[in-house]
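We modelled the chain as a single entity of 78 amino acids. Its sequence is:
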Amino acid sequence: MAQAFGGIDGHPFAQFRQGALSWRVTGTIDTLIISLVVTGSVKLAAAIGITEVFTKSLLYYFHERAWLKIPYGRKTPA
């Protein structure tokens, strides 16, 4: 049954969670590389990468909260 949803661990959204996590890791690695190229400092690039993980997680949380307040695409009870 889980395979019908694409879930690997038996949860219907397992594949979504894994995709979101792999995208977050890819984005952080990208930020680290760009920061290293721009600054030339491994220490500064690591600080930027770590900061980026937290700031983007918070931004995502507030972004989703804002979208929940907009009834776009949802049917209202009659």
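As a brief sanity check on the tokenised model: The longest helix spans residues 42-68. The chain has a mean pLDDT of 82.
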